[in-house]
Every structure is written in C-alpha cells, then in structure tokens.
Design goal:
alpha/beta, inorganic pyrophosphatase (n-terminal core), Diaminopimelate Epimerase, Chain A, domain 1, six-stranded parallel sheet, six-stranded mixed sheet, globular, binds manganese (II) ion
Length: 316
C-alpha cells in the first residue's frame, strides 16, 4: 500500500492536467467522491483537477458542496487529452458513457472503486469491493498519506457514505460505521447532511410512488417488478431509489426489479435483493454491479425485457 500511495503521489505531482470522473448519471458516491478527490488534490498539490460527468446529476444532489465544479462533458473539447485521468466509482467501462473515450486518451489512468470489475481501465488501481462506498477508499488514502482536508472534503466523503449505504440501512461491515464516526468527529453533521439530500422535485416523488402502487408481485410475492413507462421516465430524476426502497420494506419480498423505459427500445433495469446475489442476473443482461444491488441497460422493448426478467428469476 505504501508503494502504491507513493506512486499515486508521484503521478499527481507529474501531471499538468488532471480530470476526474465517476459513472454516467452520477449517484451520491460517484459525484461526492469525485468532488472530494478534486479538493484533496487542490489542497495538497496546489493544482486544480476538473470533474467531468456524463448524463444527469439528480436534483437531490444539487446542494452537495462544490456541486458547481462538476462540468458536463460536452463543455470539454472532444480532442482534449489529459495527463492523468482518475476514475472513481465507475464499475465497468460501459457505465462511463462519453467519459470512456475521454479517459482512454489520457496518458495515464488511476482508479478508485468498490465495484466488482474484471476489465479495469486503471493502470494504478485502488479497488476494494468490500467497501460500502468509494469515498472510504479515498479516506483510507487521506489518512495513510496524511493529506490535508477541509470541511467540504469531510462533508463530501460523508455524503458518499450516506447515499451508498441508503442512510446506513445497507451496512454489512463495521468499518463503514467507524469511518463515519471519524468523519463526525472531524466535523461532519450527519443530520444536516441527510437533510441536504431531501431536495427532490415533487414530480419525481409522485412518479416513483405511482410505480410502487402499480407493482406486479410474482413468485408468491417474493419477486416485485415495478415499471416506469417512458412518459413517466421523463419526470424521474435519478434511478428510482424510492421505488426500490419502498418495495424492499414489504414482508416476503426478496427480489426487486425496476424496469425503466428510457427510450422505446432501451430499458434500464435495477435489481435489488435482500439476501441472495443478483449481480450475476444483471450480468446475464449485459450489466453488473454489487452482490445485492446491480443493474443493466438492455436495447429491447419493455415487453420483451419484462418477459426475460421473469424468466431469469425462474428457479431462484
Ligand atoms: Mn458507489
């Protein structure tokens, strides 16, 4: 680890231009880890990396610190080549959208991630699939390298943990609680940070609630499949986390699937499970993710994808 951190420091020192990105349609961990790392580099290396994203940042993240520093990818010249590209919380290259090509052009790629990925893009990888949030990996490095941090970094690292653990409801290892406790000791106000995320548009919550109300229950109630049709999808902001969490509260529901008709023949699927892995099912649809929370995007009609999903769960 010490060698790797020395290498990391060397690469940052030698880079004149640095870009940082997470996955397309950034979630809390992806965006906040990217912004935290930007600030850490600024504070410790006296240079300013740029944070670039593709897709849409949900409105609930509008009030996170330094949000305005996240730059939409079309604002960057297409042929722009960075000395160093840092990928955080991206999963697989397919999740990067337009960022994939931008990163590939860079002289060197470093990555920090907590997703399973057998096709990493980074040459120097700080990956740990045991971590609940990518920001924990950054925090480990901050402590090991004794990097200076400020209140914004503390809040961003904490927000990444809060969002990726679903307000600490998905915690499986105590290390994330220790990290959170240390961040609180360092000045993070957990209640304020949770409240800062209560910032969704009314129409989004109403569309999510409608999808919950119209959920189909199969396999004697063990499998819940919710659907968001295209007209409603336009009002959705984020990945429909409220749908997934509401259905997960129902007695007897083991698997939750959310089908999102992004376009006529493009269906986003989110898989959630209480106890049995669903990442392999997501992989069978060309996606991936974590053991109990995974997803895919399938170029097919809603009807076909629905039937394939029902089939995929036969026998589980
Ligand atoms: Mn994450």
């Amino acid at each position: 680890m010490k060698k790797k951190i020395e290498n990391l420091i060397e690469k940052i020192k030698n880079a004149k231009t640095i870009a940082i990105s997470g996955h397309k349609n950034p979630d809390g961990d992806s965006l906040c880890s990217a912004l935290a790392l930007m600030k850490i580099i600024e504070l410790n290396f006296n240079k300013k990396p740029i944070v670039i994203y593709d897709g849409n940042i949900p409105k609930e993240l509008d009030n996170v610190p330094l949000r305005k520093d996240a730059c939409y990818h079309t604002h960057i010249p297409e042929d722009k080549k960075y000395d160093l590209y840092i990928l955080v919380d991206y999963g697989t290259r397919k999740n990067l959208g337009a960022i994939e090509k931008m990163a590939e052009k860079a002289n060197y790629i470093i990555e920090f991630d907590h997703h399973y990925n057998d096709g990493v893009m980074g040459k120097l990888c700080f990956d740990d699939a045991e971590k609940a949030a990518t920001s924990q990996i950054l925090y480990d490095i901050v402590r090991a390298a004794k990097f200076e941090i400020n209140q914004d970094v503390i809040n961003l690292l904490t927000l990444a943990i809060i969002t990726d653990t679903g307000n600490f409801k998905f915690v499986r290892h105590s290390d994330v609680l220790r990290d959170a406790a240390e961040l609180v000791d360092a000045g993070a106000n957990m209640a304020d940070l949770v409240n800062l995320l209560n910032n969704k548009d009314k129409k989004t919550v109403l569309v999510e609630s409608k999808a919950v109300a119209e959920t189909e229950f199969l396999m004697k109630g063990r499998l819940a499949i919710a659907t968001i049709h295209h007209d409603d999808y336009k009002k959705l902001d984020g990945r429909g986390e409220l749908v997934l969490r509401s259905l997960g509260q129902i007695h007897g529901v083991e698997y939750i699937v959310l089908l999102k008709e992004q376009k006529e023949k493009q269906i986003g699927i989110s898989f959630r499970s209480r106890s049995k892995p669903v990442n392999q099912i997501a992989e069978s649809f060309g996606g991936g993710g974590h053991l109990f929370a995974a997803g895919a995007v399938v170029p097919d009609s809603l009807e076909n994808v629905h039937d394939k999903v029902v089939n995929a769960f036969k026998g589980v």
